[in-house]
Every structure is written in C-alpha cells, then in structure tokens.
Design a protein that fits this description.
Elements lengths: L1 H26 L6 H39 L1
Helix pairs in contact: 1-2
Length: 73
C-alpha cells in the first residue's frame, strides 16, 4: 500500500511539472531547444499518467490481497 501511495504522490508531482514544461516550450517556439523541451515535457506528462495508473493498481491489489487474507482466517 505504501508503494502505491508513493507512486501517486510522484504522479502528482509530474502532473504539475509536465504541463508547465510543455507550456514553457510553446512560449519559446523560436528557441533552439524547443523540440527537446517539448519532448521532455511530453515524457513527464506520460510518466504522470503511467504512475497514476500503476499506483492505483498497486493499491487495489494490496487491498484485495488484504481482504482475501482476512477471509481465509
């Protein structure tokens, strides 16, 4: 359960960081690092989605295992 919570917290961090970097890239389209910053921001956004899914699935599996262990009792 702690691992899932850690992933959700990390996902929250990337949810704010990714769009901020993408917005910064779009504001500086003429800059030479435009594509690098845009790709980096997109990777952070995709990482946020993956960590969110992974964290929720980890918590659900943890809760279902605890529930199964309680019934076997």
């Amino acid at each position: 359960m702690a691992r899932g919570s850690n992933r959700l917290i990390l996902s929250l961090f990337f949810m704010f960081l990714g769009p901020t970097i993408v917005f910064s890239a779009f504001k500086n389209e003429g800059h030479e690092f435009y594509y690098f910053v845009l790709i980096l921001g997109t990777i952070f956004c995709l990482m946020a989605v993956y960590l969110l899914y992974s964290g929720i699935m980890t918590i659900v599996k943890s809760l279902s295992e605890e529930e199964n262990n309680n019934f076997q009792g």
